[in-house]
């Protein structure tokens, strides 16, 4: 039953995205323009630390802008309708999965743009791609829950920005450590512990969101 609800709700999210193409187009325009301005500012004269920092900072801001609409764009009437037809767990998981797909696409697209404009400084491509997936999952789950909390308050976009950065920064710092290794060495030695930490953080956030979201949803 839960899997069917999640499947239909993800389909709903995709249909809404197709009807509101200006939203995803706006996110892509923001991503491309930010990376292009960065390219103009540095003109390929860039070291690995700067490359790594700029990549994740841009991706963080793109994620906040893209995922903030998860609950904010929905009216109270639509919330009530969802409340009558689906469980809160299904609603949360469907949005996390959809936002994971969105963040993965944006992450890969951002990586390709960085390779094209800023140069390829990544030595260990498989490690960096694993970091992208784990980072996409962490940002999607964390920002989705923060968006749900912010949607219950007025001036919700500002509240989401205020709440999300302190929560995401420790996770982002770990991501940058792993990706920095991918930019500097071929070996995986020393990165397994950080990958386990990222997996643990992602799992913890999803479990906590799964357990706590029903109380927020029924408020």
Could you characterize the architecture of this molecule?
There is one protein chain. The protein is mainly alpha-helical. The chain has one domain (2-217). It contains nine helices and no strands. The protein has helices spanning 2-19, 21-42, 48-67, 69-72, 76-85, 88-117, 125-150, 156-184, 192-217. The mean pLDDT is 81.
**Overall residue-averaged pLDDT value:** 81
Number of helices: 9
Helix content: over 70%
- Low-pLDDT parts are none
How would you describe the shape? globular
Our estimate of the beta-strand percent is under 5%
SSE series: HHHHHHHHH
Q: Alpha-carbon distance between the termini?
A: 24 Å
Q: How many strands appear in the DSSP assignment? A: 0
What's the alpha carbon Rg, rounded to whole Å?
Answer: 18 Å
Can you lay out the helices and strands and say which pair or pack?
Layout: H1 2-19, H2 21-42, H3 48-67, H4 69-72, H5 76-85, H6 88-117, H7 125-150, H8 156-184, H9 192-217
Key features of this structure:
mainly alpha; single chain
Write a brief caption for the model.
By secondary structure, the protein is mainly alpha-helical.
